[in-house]
Amino acid sequence: MPGVLIDAMSSPTATADEAVKPSDKRRSGRVSKRPEFLGASHPANSKRKRGHAEDGAEVEDGGSSGSDEDEEDAEDDEPDEEELREERRAKKSKSTPKRPAAKKAKTNGAPLRMPIRSTAQKARPSKKRAVAGTVPDADQAGGLYAEIFASDKSVEEVVSEWVQRFDEHESAALAEIVNFVLRCCGCESEVTNYDVEDVDSANNKLGDLQEEFQAQNVTDYPIILRTKAGITLKHTMEEFFKILIKTIDAADIIFTRVELIENVQVWLSTMSAAQNRPFRHTATVASLAVIDALCDIGRDCATTAATAKRQGENMRKGKGANKKRASGLDKDAEKAKQKQTFVDTAVKDWFDTIYIHRYRDIDPKIRVDCAEALGRWITTYPDEFFDAAHLRYLGWVLSDTNSHARHEVLKSLIKLYEQKDRLAGLKVFTERFRERIVEMAALDSETSVRASAIKLLNLLRSAGYLEPDDIDMVGRLIFDADQRVREAVVPFFTASHGDIYESKVEDLGGEDTIDEEMGDVAKSNDRPGLPWLKLKCLAEVLEAYDAFDPKMSKHTVQGSSGQFRLHAEEVESRFVTVGESLYHDTDIIQDWETLAKYLLYDTSEGAQNGSADGTAAQLKEFCKLSAREEYVLLELLNVSIRQHVTELLEASAERKGKKTKRQREDLADEQESSAREIANLIPQLLKRFGDSPDTALAVLRLERIVDLNALSEIYKTVLDDIEKQFLTHGNEEVMTEASRALLRARTYDELGDETEEKIEELWEETLDTFRRLCASIDPSARGGQPPNVLDGLTKTVYRLERLSSISNPTQHLSAVPEAPKTKSRGKQPAQVSALELLTALARRAAINEDTQGDRATAQAEDALSSHAAQTLGFHVLWTTSTIVKGLPSSPPESQSSHLLTIRASLISTLTSILDHRSPSSPIAAELSHILLDLHSSAAHLRSLNSLTLTMSATTQSLILRVLTACERRLAAKTGKHIDAPREPAPRKRRPRPRAQDDDEMDDAALAASPVASDDEAEPQERETSAPPSLISDSSSSSESDAEEEADEMRSARRAARHQGAALVAEQRLCELGGKMVLAVAAGAVADEKAVSKRLELNRAKLGANWREVVKYLDNLKEAGKKVGGKGAKKKEKEKAVEVESESSENEVEEAEGEGEGEGEEQEQVEEEEEEREAEVESVLGD
């Protein structure tokens, strides 16, 4: 048979007629053949028109001559061939008479060097296919590639026809396989049947093909393309090799003609080790598909052998025993077993040749394919692959640098652990790689990897393969900032919570014992029972996980007042976030009525009836709640009620056709009854939990959910409770929430009068307290007051600020109190307006030589001055709004005069403070906001010449200094490089004497701060940051492991703090930039071009949020172009600014929710020095 493949890796060559393809014929009918480049080819191969005998003799001679050469010499055969051709081409005088014909053939397109360079007519398509990232054209490619991708034949039909061609000519058929793989690589070069027959030269031939292919500078190749064509090509190639192996198995070729699969392995393994990435990856994918098919065959053989053996044993038993049939079945089993042994040997050979080298390939795509393939093999053929020797490869890839590889391994492991019968065989693997999987769940950079790791750990937990510390570490991820991670950990957390609940029930004797002794009471929702015990366990777990890292329990930073506050508006506690994640998967959270009854029940009472040792007494003891657990359940109650109301609203919003009239009426009744029950619940909860700021805040938030129409009957009681919370609590969040509730109540006409009366009462009582406190101190003197007096005054001023944000403060702040008719003991309040007192308090922010103090006192003083300035700013905005509402008529002279006076006084106060303070201080940004609001709000008063307001160059320069400081802080926190601005310096003035520069005070504060830098904070954490289990449990891990894990946890905390500081810096910058853009739009700045140019200086260097803020300047420019003219632009700017009294609340929420909580004075000393230098340059004009 021509072209036979033999084990000796050499076979007789075919005749010329058999070797030539029909596609190689010229148009004239003559046949052209591409030059041979193998070492076994002959140098002088100008014509191939000899008989078969001569051809065979020539090959035999060539083979003998080639045997005397070294392998290194054989590698140089191809270049020698080219040199000989070049020499013959140059010697035209010595050419034979047939030389012109040969030359003509070459000019017609016979390739001289690289096979991919075909005829001139085909040159254009080849260039087109050389473009990176394209899939070869099937019609032009020819061969198997064209049969598979260009014909209507199925892959099975193509394989069947190929098997027939293999029977006729083995080497030519195998060459088709190799060329098919080359085409899938995107390579246009080919191998011939002569190349295939000389297997020893496969490495050299593929080296030549690599050089030709690399000359095209192809970066992308077909199987990595994410296009439909690329995905289809890869899938079809894999399918082809699977069907090919299964087909030759069905035809017994795989066993009777072993040389076929051996030759395929030689070529594919050689390609898989190539330096060229397309060759290596494509051949690896094809090889993995071959192993897939072999695994299927081996599994079928094992199944057949086991089935035949079992049937044979059954045939020998019983009365109808058939020994002859049993003997035949035994032979079938033995034959299948022999076949399986052969397949196992082949699988091992392929695995050792391909997988072991490629699973750690430098190309991550190849590693991903290998990881995915090994997972399939373990599942498909566990007899061969389900052992520690192969599982360890999956474990090693868990530490791969590529996230896709790690993810593929996790998905494979999930499939394995889901098979209960495989758990015993995975125990050793689990012990070896458990810690790594836990680490991936907690710290991996990719969310999808973390989610899969958590899912895998849940399977390990159910199998009992996790340690208690591992369960706690994964359970704490319920507080993770990534929503997808929280959703992934919900099943793990709920299962862990269920285990804790079951252990508690077992401690009480089991559920049957509890039911027997307590009866229906055990499952009651009105008294201590199993539902309450389940809630107790939930609160206990959440509180324990939250206490593990209390500093990260809220995304907080230290504000100017020294308190830690939420740095973004409407950011709720982490328990609310957790409750939203758990709601749909936890029935006990969905039952808000049970939650409310549990919270209203006083669990601190002792056992009354019955023995204290009884089950009921023990259950009641178990249900006792700590103060922190009560807070956790209040937050969960908030989530439960909110979700319940949302579901009712969504149900009522559905199309009417989906519900009957009766269903709609029932739904309306349920909404009304729920609103009434929730409304009645709020006063009871405030009565029980109103003393603590955290719990009071959680209860006040419930008021947002309820429709106030449902509170009409009891709202007077609710208002009294809100007033009590506003006046008795010093927590700013509680006061903010109480003022929101009052503002919301003002929007309901039916409750308007009662609400206004309550607000008036609050004004009177707060102002009276404010004046009495100011009477005991000098309002204009910074420092010297006792801390309790300073704290009380700050809280009182903040109450004035909150009241000013929801109601017009003009009358209350401008009024001068009457002198008391009767003398009383103690110092009487000064007979001045609250405006004068607030102005004096605001001016205390200007530091001079006599007002130095420690860090805590300085922060408290800044907080007081900031709140006073905010209150004065709202007063100006309300006054401006009142005048604007009366336009176009002119306001009364007294009103205009009052606005001019208070506005000028406030601007003078703010600019003076900014001139004295460092632009990097938190209060500088807050006061800049107020200045910008004052100038922007005056845009509506341009029609009144007497009330117009123009920003001075000095004020603009001071604000730009603050902007520069904010930019530098963000750049320092994020490691970005920004352009230094060239800001005009304010007019020169004699510097005031200072005992200590404000910048120097900031540096000293930085040095004293425990969180001034990560390096300084680390020693304080070293003793407390590690979990108790890592410190005390020496049996679970060594001290080095514990210390390493503690270091990782400290690093994670430092990273979280650093990220939080970066977010705060970005928020401060964007808030200030937003107000500056608004001022530019209103035409309220001194130099619009200079400010706009300054805002755009670092537009592309400080993140997407800052870029979007500055982007509004483009909108202003476009609007100016469309309108045209200076007057039109001015009118457009006037329209851009609106001051409405109803929007005052929103303004203050932005100002204090986002800016007030950003007061971090923990910047690095180097950063402060840079800012101090910039300030000196700006002030002195140097």
TrEMBL record:
What GO terms fall under cellular component here? chromatin; cohesin complex; nucleus
Species in which this protein is naturally found? Myriangium duriaei CBS 260.36
User: Compositional bias (Acidic residues) spans?
Assistant: 56-84, 1139-1176
* Protein known as: STAG-domain-containing protein
Query: What are the Basic and acidic residues biased-composition ranges?
Result: 974-986
Q: Which Pfam families match?
A: HEAT_SCC3-SA (PF24571), SCD (PF21581), STAG (PF08514)
All copies of domain SCD, residue ranges: 355-440
Q: Where is this region: Disordered?
A: 1-133, 308-333, 652-673, 809-830, 974-1054, 1121-1182
Q: Name one GO molecular function term.
A: chromatin binding
Source domain of life? Eukaryota
From start to end residue, where is composition biased (Basic residues)? Answer: 90-106, 317-326
Question: Biological process GO annotation list?
Answer: sister chromatid cohesion
